[in-house]
């Protein structure tokens, strides 16, 4: 069987353009996470040149880690392979080989694939954590398959769910007093730079289209002195050397109407690299043509079917309006119930008020607020362009996004309600996740025990 895979991989290497032929070899439908790159078989079935059958699953594991290890590390993975090197836990691997990604995530098996690419039944936590019901009174009588229910535990990412964290944030208000986002670097700097440079910059080509010049003249690029040839003739510009990147962006010294992602990347490395890691950019990342809206599995506007995903999908050429990019651009393609419901939510109302200047910058909530969180790095900020980084499991959105403005319990209650996500958070949550209260009580009892021990000790 694995020989067959190796054969396909080798074949794919020598004949990369025969996508139709490759599709025939697919043993089954690929997951929601990977279908966009399913024809890049080599990305997972890489055999390092040899056809060593026994090596196949290690090779696959390496492939998974190549693309996902950084994110799992950032997520402080609760069950990393290293945890099971400890002899105390190693025995558990006989029940389930948790060191291999493939134990839980296989491919091309649509009939048994659950959300998030999970391909084993949901009750598997129980195999290793049977003692919980005995050691925790609070967990008595809970269903075997309920551990990973929203708001309780995740397998990998528990950053918003660790008991200590829950306890620390117990009793917070639903809406925090200073409910504000991190400001973008450009919002922090104000308009000072614009004033300085405005009079000095003229287009660096002679026959420039006046309408383009007009648009460009009110853009952030103009204000920062970024001229026509820097985007359209990237290698002709000496100043690019200052950005210290080596890419294949250049088109020699000839003018090119088309501006490739690699050109934007020379000046916007972090935005570009994060873009390449999510659903919008993952095809470009493996050398396939851009994702096209027509290929999507999610509902999209039919008049956008021909559109492709690159930097200009949200940032129109010469305009770079980040406010337009944050909502209107998204709704130029997305057409599912959740996205459409946004416009009627109180978050959208806040955004309208921010745009009209009625409330401070950073108080509005856009699609980008939730899906492309702003990241503070020492002295500046940037926008995480991987719109999948905080999407699933849904609690990952809580720490980076909701908790800037809402208490932890309110946030967990909100995201744990699938109906509320469907209607884009247009009402307060109706259900209550009990874990915050449970964690608090557990720590309270422990604190009481410690106090009474101290008291009896000091007597
Ligand atoms: C995102 C990663 C990924 C991509 C891309 C991918 N596969 Fe797979 N494939 C897997 C995984 C995971 C398995 C399961 C391996 C296992 O069970 O040991 C698998 C299994 C297979 C199998 C064995 C199926 C069986 O019934 O046992 C074949 C054949 C196969 N893939 C062919 C392909 C071909 C052909 C392509 C490209 C057209 C492709 N795969 C692309 C991840 C991938
Ligand atoms: C070429 C890079 C690449 C490789 C190789 C790869 N993945 Fe992925 N994977 C992605 C991207 C990109 C996504 C979509 C963005 C996201 O969900 O983070 C994704 C999504 C996922 C998801 C989430 C699916 C969902 O619906 O939320 C899982 C689980 C996953 N990958 C596991 C694996 C495993 C296991 C392997 C090895 C068999 C693997 N990946 C190999 C890039 C890769
Ligand atoms: C014991 C089962 C198990 C194993 C082994 C496992 N996963 Fe997962 N994985 C899950 C479950 C369950 C989810 C659903 C979200 C959660 O509970 O964290 C998930 C979700 C994911 C996601 C999407 C959500 C996220 O947190 O980014 C990725 C990517 C992923 N796994 C990659 C991997 C990789 C890579 C490996 C191997 C290093 C691996 N998984 C091993 C069970 C497993
Ligand atoms: C293959 C065995 C195995 C499986 C399957 C497994 N776990 Fe674990 N889990 C462990 C081990 C080992 C630890 C570490 C315990 C320790 O450090 O004492 C752990 C720790 C944890 C912790 C505590 C983390 C902390 O540091 O506070 C949680 C929560 C947890 N697991 C939840 C789950 C959930 C939910 C599932 C199912 C989605 C699951 N586990 C599946 C073996 C497993
Ligand atoms: C920040 C990068 C950037 C700068 C600076 C820039 N452009 Fe562009 N330009 C683009 C992008 C992106 C496109 C759309 C490319 C595509 O569709 O592939 C474009 C398209 C064009 C086109 C193609 C036709 C059209 O209307 O879309 C012309 C002509 C053009 N630009 C002229 C100029 C002139 C003249 C200047 C200087 C006044 C300039 N550009 C400055 C990024 C830039
Ligand atoms: C020669 C360097 C350079 C190139 C090439 C370049 N930019 Fe910029 N860009 C800048 C500078 C400098 C700024 C202003 C400071 C900042 O926000 O980083 C800026 C700002 C921006 C902004 C923020 C606008 C705002 O209102 O705050 C966006 C969006 C943007 N660029 C997108 C792009 C895209 C898309 C491309 C490729 C088509 C591109 N840039 C190419 C240098 C460049
Ligand atoms: C899916 C839409 C979308 C795509 C595609 C996109 N952007 Fe953005 N970008 C945004 C939004 C929205 C903001 C502002 C978010 C905010 O206000 O928090 C932004 C902000 C920016 C900024 C200014 C803020 C910062 O991070 O410093 C730059 C620069 C930028 N984008 C560059 C790029 C580049 C380069 C690409 C291509 C690799 C790209 N964008 C692709 C939506 C997009
Ligand atoms: C040019 C069209 C286009 C634009 C503009 C666009 N998207 Fe997308 N988006 C897509 C396509 C296509 C996918 C992949 C859908 C699929 O795999 O079914 C996607 C995927 C996503 C996903 C991941 C969904 C999932 O299930 O993994 C999110 C979240 C998302 N987009 C949010 C946004 C936001 C927020 C904006 C605006 C800042 C935006 N998009 C702008 C076309 C677009
Ligand atoms: C308050 C935060 C928030 C806002 C605002 C928001 N979303 Fe979402 N979005 C979420 C959450 C949470 C989910 C995940 C729901 C789940 O999987 O349980 C989600 C899911 C999605 C998905 C994946 C849907 C699917 O079926 O897989 C897309 C696409 C998306 N959002 C696009 C958008 C667009 C476009 C906008 C703006 C018009 C927007 N979102 C506004 C929080 C938000
Ligand atoms: C920039 C701050 C901010 C962020 C980030 C934010 N919210 Fe809100 N949210 C608010 C404010 C302020 C209100 C109250 C609006 C009102 O009552 O007019 C609100 C209201 C709500 C409501 C009640 C809606 C109603 O109509 O009663 C829900 C549910 C909600 N938010 C969920 C979330 C979730 C989930 C997240 C994270 C994915 C999130 N919010 C992120 C500021 C924010």
From TrEMBL:
Enzyme superclass (EC): oxidoreductase
GO cellular component assignments: outer membrane-bounded periplasmic space
One Gene Ontology MF term: metal ion binding
Domain Tetrahaem cytochrome: 34-130
EC number: 1.7.2.2
Reaction it catalyzes: 6 Fe(III)-[cytochrome c] + NH4(+) + 2 H2O = 6 Fe(II)-[cytochrome c] + nitrite + 8 H(+)
Keyword Calcium attributed: yes
Species per Swiss-Prot/TrEMBL record: Crateriforma conspicua
Signal sequence region: none
Protein name: nitrite reductase (cytochrome; ammonia-forming)
Places the protein is found: Cell envelope
UniProt keywords, alphabetically: Calcium, Electron transport, Heme, Iron, Metal-binding, Oxidoreductase, Signal, Transport
Any GO BP annotation: anaerobic electron transport chain
Protein family membership: Belongs to the cytochrome c-552 family.
Cofactors named for this entry: heme c
Source species, domain of life: Bacteria
Pfam families documented for this protein: Cytochrom_c3_2, Cytochrom_C552
């Amino acid at each position: 069987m694995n020989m067959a895979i190796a054969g396909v991989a080798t074949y794919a290497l020598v004949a990369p353009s025969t996508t139709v032929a490759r599709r025939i070899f697919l043993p089954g439908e690929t997951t929601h996470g990977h279908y966009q790159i399913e024809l890049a078989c080599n990305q997972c079935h890489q055999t390092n040149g040899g056809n060593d059958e026994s090596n196949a699953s290690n090779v696959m594991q390496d492939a998974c880690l190549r693309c996902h290890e950084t994110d799992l590390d950032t997520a402080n993975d609760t069950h990393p392979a290293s945890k099971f090197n400890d002899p105390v836990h190693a025995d558990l691997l006989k029940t389930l080989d948790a060191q291999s990604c493939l134990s839980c995530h296989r491919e091309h098996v649509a009939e048994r694939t659950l959300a998030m690419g999970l391909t084993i039944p949901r009750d598997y936590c129980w195999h290793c954590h049977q003692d919980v019901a005995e050691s925790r009174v609070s967990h008595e009588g809970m269903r075997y398959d309920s551990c990973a229910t929203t708001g309780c535990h995740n397998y990998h990412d528990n950053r918003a769910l660790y008991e200590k964290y829950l306890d620390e944030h117990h009793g917070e208000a639903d809406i925090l007093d200073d409910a504000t986002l991190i400001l973008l670097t450009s919002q922090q700097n104000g308009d000072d730079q614009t004033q300085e440079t405005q009079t000095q910059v003229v287009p660096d080509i002679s026959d420039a289209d006046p309408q383009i010049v007009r648009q460009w003249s009110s853009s952030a690029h103009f204000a920062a002195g970024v001229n026509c040839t820097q985007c359209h003739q990237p290698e002709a510009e000496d100043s690019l050397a200052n950005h210290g990147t080596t890419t294949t962006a250049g088109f020699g010294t000839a003018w090119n109407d088309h501006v490739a992602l690699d050109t934007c990347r020379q000046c916007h490395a972090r935005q570009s690299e994060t873009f390449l890691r999510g659903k919008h950019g993952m095809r470009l990342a493996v050398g396939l043509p851009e994702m096209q809206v027509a290929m999507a599995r999610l509902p999209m506007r039919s008049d956008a079917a021909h559109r492709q995903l690159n930097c200009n999908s949200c940032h129109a050429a010469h305009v770079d309006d980040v406010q337009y990019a944050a909502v209107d651009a998204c709704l130029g393609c997305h057409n599912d119930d959740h996205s459409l419901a946004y416009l009627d939510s109180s978050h959208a109302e806040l955004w309208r008020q921010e745009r009209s200047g009625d409330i401070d910058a950073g108080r509005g909530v856009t699609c980008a607020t939730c899906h492309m969180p702003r990241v503070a790095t020492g002295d500046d900020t940037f926008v995480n362009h991987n719109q999948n980084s905080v999407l699933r499991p849904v609690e990952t959105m809580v720490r980076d996004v909701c908790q800037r403005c809402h208490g932890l319990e309110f946030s967990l209650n909100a995201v744990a309600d699938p109906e509320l996500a469907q209607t884009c958070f247009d009402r307060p949550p109706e259900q209550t996740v009990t874990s915050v209260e449970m964690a608090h009580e557990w720590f309270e009892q422990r604190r009481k025990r410690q106090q009474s021990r101290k008291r009896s000790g000091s007597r």
